Amino acid sequence: AVAFDPAELTVSKGDTVAWKHTAGEAHSVTAYQDAIPDGGAYWAAGGFDSEAAATSGWEDGQGAVQSGESFVHTFETTGTHEYYCIPHEAAGMTGKVVVE
After folding, report:
1. Are strands 8-11 and 70-74 parallel, antiparallel or unpaired?
2. Dihedrals φ, ψ of 9, to 5°?
3. Residue burial 12-21, b: 16+ Cβ < 10 Å; e: rest
4. Which of 1, 28, 72, 73 could be joined to 86 by an S-S link, Cβ 3.0–4.6 Å?
5. Is the model's pTM score more than 0.90?
6. Greatest C-alpha distance within the chain
7. pLDDT tens track for 25-53
């Protein structure tokens, strides 16, 4: 209920990844801004342009991926992209996408 599965995924540059929420309470998919590879744009569910905006948005009820919904992102920058769920980070709900 509080884990990304898989926690690590390797894809090719230009691939699109979908996070599907299958059941339970709302989650976020929020990139760690400091872990975006050089030249990469910030990404998060809700379309926020920074981690601070995503955190603030979550507190205002924005950026949630509800049960049955998906968040989709296309990776155009190679490297490791680390991310987390805002309300469940302390429970270890983190992940990474390695783009080759």
Report:
1. unpaired
2. -135, 135
3. eeeeebebeb
4. 28
5. yes
6. 35
7. 999 999 999 999 999 999 999 999 999 99
